[in-house]
Structure formats: structure tokens, C-alpha cells
Amino acid sequence: MSRANVSAEQLKLFIERIETLEEEKRGLADDIKGVFAEAKSNGYDVKTMRTIIKLRRMDRNDRAEQEALLETYMSALGLEV
Amino acid sequence: MSRANVSAEQLKLFIERIETLEEEKRGLADDIKGVFAEAKSNGYDVKTMRTIIKLRRMDRNDRAEQEALLETYMSALGLEV
Amino acid sequence: MSRANVSAEQLKLFIERIETLEEEKRGLADDIKGVFAEAKSNGYDVKTMRTIIKLRRMDRNDRAEQEALLETYMSALGLEV
Amino acid sequence: MSRANVSAEQLKLFIERIETLEEEKRGLADDIKGVFAEAKSNGYDVKTMRTIIKLRRMDRNDRAEQEALLETYMSALGLEV
DNA sequence: ACGTTTGCGCTTTAGC
DNA sequence: GCTAAAGCGCAAACGT
To answer: Cα torsion for A32, A33, A36, A38, to the nearest 10°?
Structure first.
């Protein structure tokens, strides 16, 4: 088999792997929607839930960001991190 | 246990389920990036790969429609297609 | 002149207006680069400057976001904003 | 006035100049969005307009190169171009 | 000069 | 169908 064909085969495998992963990703997005729907049918306010989840995610991110900022400052001051 | 506590507990479970699913979704996004990186290190052009994946996902008719519209506009502007 | 030609002319004008604005936008981006370069040649640390600018922008955005969050809470509680 | 104060003042000026330029840049971005909105309300397809602007900005050679690469990959995968 | 990494802007998606 | 948010892609910027 020629080198070109080997390459084509390899390219095809890469693309199929990505397409599979994307499919799974879409599946998870649907699952998430499903849980929200279930919560709603149990009387919970979806908008408020989203706010809570967003805030919890922000807390984590902010914490990570603070660390990064600190490192930048330390570097700027010529200190070891 | 009071009704309020039951509700709070249930709400917590819903939110944790969603956060877990979102975490998995992020994991898959990372996996996808990893495959692209691997393909790149094997000499493939990532941008072109993305184009191909996009085209394959697109419905054949939608694609033809979009191209027709583009040609119409290009002609209207006196540009080469 | 036919209606098609009028449309083509109008389309052309829209596109040219956008292209002009984008050109100006690129010019401003260059100006910004220039100021950073000037500051650097005066001995300032560019990375630290970027951090400061980012923080100042974040402060403003966070303030706006806090307001938005408050509104969400108020709505969730059935209160008037 | 001490040297440190001069430096601080100078740094402040640099930062303010950059913030002003960034503000203007954001203003232009808004203007562009406005023109797209106007075009849309006149019945034009925004997505296609974006494609045209992109193509016009692209160098003719680069464009031909990319298309050739896409065709190569598509053929390798046994897909129709 | 090149490759990696970060930040910005666009595109797409989800909800109203 | 439109508006708002999130995720993704690209391009510039930094370090090697």
C-alpha cells in the first residue's frame, strides 16, 4: 500500500475519532437538558438553578485566576513563585 | 425531616448531577483537542480537518443552498466565485 | 435600473461600510501595539501593564455583572427590580 | 517630585492612552454590528455577507492554496468535493 | 524565526 | 424568531 493511502487511512481515523467524541459531547448536552427538565417538573426554578451553577463555577474560576495573577505579580517583582 | 429540607436536598442532587455532566462534557472537549493535537503532530492541517468535519455534519441540501446564495451575492457584486 | 441592481448596489455599500470600519479597527489595534512598544522602550513591563488593564476592566464588568445577578435574584424571589 | 512619582505618572498616562484606544476599538466593533443589523433588516443574509468579506480580505493565492488542500484531503477520504 | 500559549471575537446554541 | 450566554477558532504575543 502506498504512503498516500496510509496517510489517507490515518486521516480518516483521526476524523472518525473526533466525530465520535463530538457525538458523545452532544449526548451529554442532551442529558443536561433532561436533568433541567426533570428539576423543572419537580417545581424548581430553572433560571435560579442556572444562576447557582454559574456562581459555583465562577468561584472556582476566580480562585484559579487569583493564583495566576499572584504568579504574575511575583514574577514582575522578580520573586520566586 | 421538614419538607423544606427534602426540597433543599433534592435541589442539591439535581445541581450536582448537572455539574457532573458538565464536567464530563468539558472532558470530552479536551479529548477532542487532544486528537487534533495528535493529528497536527502527525503532519495534518488542523484547519482543513475542521472544514471537512463541518462539511460532513452539514446537510447536503443546506450546503448547496448556502453555496447558491454565496454565488448570487458574489455575482451581484461583480466578484469571481 | 432593475430592482436586482438596486439591491446589488445596496449590498455593495453595506459591505464597503463594514470593510472601512474594520480597517479603522485594525488601525486602532496597531496604535495600541505602538503605545505598548513605547512603554516598553521606557522600561515598563508590558505583561504587568496588561494585567493592570485587565483588572481595571474586570472591576467595571464585575460591577455590571453584580447588578445583573441582583436582578436575577430579585426576579427569582418574585420581587420588583 | 521624586523619580518614582514621575514613573508612576508616566505609567498612568500610558495605561490611560491604551484604555482610550481600546474604548474606541469597542465603539467601532459596535458600529460594525450596527451595519450588519441594518443590512439584515433590509433582507440581506448576514452569514453570506461575512463569508464575502472574509474572502475579499483573503489573499487570492492563500485562498487557492486552502482550497487545493481541502480537495486533497477530501479525495484522500473518498469524499465528493 | 518558530512554536506555544493566551486573549479576543465570532459562531453557534439554548431559552423566552 | 430574537436575544443572550457559552464554547470554539483564530490571531496576536510571548518565550525559546
So the answer is: -100
